[in-house]
Amino acid sequence: MENKEFYLGMWVTKDGHIRHELLPGNRYDEARRNRKSAYQGNYKITGNHIDYKDDTGFTADGDFKDGILYHAGMILYKEI
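^ that's the sequence the OP posted. Answer follows.
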């Protein structure tokens, strides 16, 4: 298991259309294309697994593998 601090920051699809910012305090902010803050909510990381719950109650999850986030059919890379 990696240090949870590693997961903080911006995760982006290769085309840049989806951007997940994992914030301290277990909050996230997701942008979609030109729509900033399209979704916001809480996340919880357990091992290499992440569970999301947005502020409307919608839930989703994903897994980190080899420094890549696999989430809902999307592949996101950490922006450095």
